[in-house]
Amino acid sequence: xxxxxxxxxxxxxxxxxxxxxxxxxxxxxxxxxxxxxxxxxxxxxxxxxxxxxxxxxxxxxxxxxxxxxxxxxxxx
Length: 76
Prior knowledge:
This protein is mainly α. Helix content is 92%, strand content 0%.
């Protein structure tokens, strides 16, 4: 019984290892793409909360201004 269990465990381990090897390349490729796309974002980041807050406020003002502009022209 012990030898059967050990053979079954080794067979299962071989299957799992082959599946892991098959999935390793796509996962590494996806990670490389994400890393490459993150380079511009990392260049912008300064780590200062004030600069992030200013960016959010400027964005909200721009969005609000756009919608107010669109609403004023949509009424006429």
